[in-house]
Amino acid sequence: MKVWQQRVLRLLQWLAGMRYVKFGVVGASGTVVNMAVLYLCHNYVFDVLEADLGKPYVSLAVAIAVATLNNFSWNRLWTWADRRAPGAELAAPAYLPQLLKYALASWFGIALQYGLTLWLTHFMHYLLANVLAIVVASVSNFLANDRWTFKKPLP
């Protein structure tokens, strides 16, 4: 293996070991899942809804729910895999309370992003305000999940 390939491989291993980077990759995958489910539900699954008015609401709710389940599952299996109690699988008794915590932490992050974006638009362009709010909300969401949802199991 060439020197540059070894360096790239070491860099990739270092990044993969970083929990926040993993969290970001999972979040990006959740965005793709959200958009795909939203599109499919809006254009195919809920095409039977008579009123076009209700279709976006139902489609968006399903997309958010599926993306949240996707993100929770991948974060549990990959980002915080080292924090699962020995023998803990994706069984309902261990899974459901953790999923509820994850959902609450996610909704807090969404509310923080929303409020911070609105506040920052008084001082800067709304797109820049939204990017800054996303960064702050992602850090708070990561910390909430790191310290609360996926906290280290007691020995």
Structure report:
- With 155 residues, this protein is an all-alpha fold.
- It folds into two domains: 1-79, no CATH class; 89-155, no CATH class.
- It is built from five helices and no strands.
- It has helices at residues 3-17, 19-45, 55-79, 92-120, 126-149.
- It is globular and about 60 Å long.
- The relative contact order is 0.10.
Output the keywords:
155 residues; 0% strand; globular
List the SSEs and their pairings.
Layout: H1 3-17, H2 19-45, H3 55-79, H4 92-120, H5 126-149
Helix pairs in contact: 2-3, 4-5
Along the chain, the helix and strand elements come as HHHHH
Q: How many strand units?
A: 0
Low-confidence runs: none
Number of helices: 5
From the alpha carbons, calculate the radius of gyration and give it in angstroms: 19 Å
Helix-and-strand structural type: mainly alpha
The coarse silhouette is globular
What distance separates the N and C termini? 42 Å
Instruction: Please tell me the overall pLDDT.
Output: 85
